[in-house]
Every structure is written in structure tokens, then in C-alpha cells.
Amino acid sequence: MDRRNPTGSSKSMGWRLALGGLGCLALASGCSNRLDTSTVEATLKAGIERQGRRLSLNAVRCPSDVTRQAGAYFRCVGELNPEGTFTINVTQQDTQGTITWEVPNSKALLNLPKVEDSIQQGLAKAFGKRALIDCGTATYRVNLPGDRFQCQVVGGIEAEATSIQSVLVSIDPDGNLSWQELRATPALAALPAASSQPVTPAAGQAAPGTTAAQVKTTTVTGPTGRVVKQPYIPGDDD
Predict the structure, then answer these.
(1) Largest CA distance in the chain
(2) Could you report the per-residue pLDDT of 110-156, keeping only the tens digit for each?
(3) Strands (E), 39-161
(4) pLDDT tens digits along 3-41
């Protein structure tokens, strides 16, 4: 899966899983027409932990009576260690046990490619420019109230004589996300040649010859004054 999609299109988080080969081996219980969901559970758990950032699961639990049927959809529940649950959407691709799966954003777990897409769309709407957003190599991250992390704006976006190089993502006590642009400001003017005294920059200013990163917000409808909040809406993402 290529998480660095420069086109800005939605990234597919589906992963294919071949659960069986011949007859009913690893496909069904008792050679019935039921999917072997215990194998699905074990493979989903391993796959999510492998793609997560310091992520540990107690278990993944799927329905025990899933009929093998191409196109059929069912949900499993992941249980975080030490606490918290999240939904895993699973779709059968055929009657042989091949599935795709996706973990949507929730109060418990963040799907970072989806976070990247949301930030990318917000910046494009505000500035009319698209830029690749990089929140790191992990796909999943525990949604911890009070947590903060940065995502890089690859190549930056020039706006109002500043350059947006990254965004700061914050999680409020209810598990909702908001983000702010971090801008690099131009270097301050050089000191006059006659001055021989060192100059200590004021709070929030950069020393001569350097740049300063500033947190600046803009509005949803334009390039100034925006605070972008992306609350999670109960439903498919819970």
C-alpha cells in the first residue's frame, strides 16, 4: 500500500486475506458454508498491530455465523490494550475466504491516512493549493485525549509571505480532532553594521538570520482566521 499518494485521492485501507485453499480447510467450520472467523480474527489482530504505532490489541472479535458469500459485509470489533474498542469493516471478495478490511476513525483509534486526507482537503479549500500530508509511517494510532502530534506538509504551501511546513494535530478530552497550521516566517532584518552589542530576540521572535515557526490559524472559508475542527460523527466511524 502506497500511503504517499500525491494525487490526493482517498487511500484504500483494504487488505486482502486468503483464508483457505482446498475443500473446507481454514474456510469453514465442519465443512459447512460458514467462514472460519477465528482465522479472520487472528489475522486482523496481527495486521492492525503491525501497522500501528505502539499499538497492542487484547483481541479481535468477529461474528461466529458468517456465511461465505461474495460481496457480503460484516463487522468485527477490536479491543485495545488496556482499554477501548473500535470497529473493523470486513467485506468478502469471493466464496473462498478472500476478504478486504478497513478500520475507520473512531473515539478509540485513528486511521492516519484518513486524517491526512482530511487535512489535505482543508488546506486545499483554504488556499486553493494541494499538498501531500505526511503523518508518519504508521497507519493506526491510539486516539488519546490530550495527545498532540505533527504532520508534515510535503514541499510546503506558500501563503501570506509565510510557508506552511506542517500542521499540529490536537485531540480534545472528548476524542475530537482539530489542527492548526505551523508557519515558518521570513528571517528578521540583519543588525546594523555599527552595532556591536548582541541582541536577544523578544519572545516569539527569531534571532537575526533565522526563521521562526509560528502557530497560526485560518478560517474554513478563506486563508485567514481558520480553526479547523474535525469532530467524529457517531455512525459508521464508531
Answers:
(1) 90
(2) 999 999 999 999 999 998 888 999 999 999 999 999 999 999 999 99
(3) 57-61, 73-80, 85-92, 99-102, 109-111, 133-134, 140-142, 148-159
(4) 444 333 333 333 334 333 222 333 344 456 899 999 999
* Cell numbers at 10, concatenated: 482517498
Burial annotation 66-77 (CB, 10 A radius, 16+ → b, else e): bebeeeeebebe
From the CB of residue 161, how many other CB atoms can be counted at a distance below 10 Å?
Answer: 8
Q: Give the angle subtended at the CA of 132 by the CAs of 127 and 134, to the nearest 5°.
A: 125
Dihedral angle over CA of 205, 228, 8, 73, nearest 10 = 140
- Cα 212 to Cα 178: distance, rounded to the nearest angstrom: 22
Q: What backbone torsions phi and psi does residue 87 show, to the nearest 5 degrees?
A: -90, 145
Task: Count Cα neighbours of 69 within 13 Å in the Cβ-side half-sphere.
Answer: 7
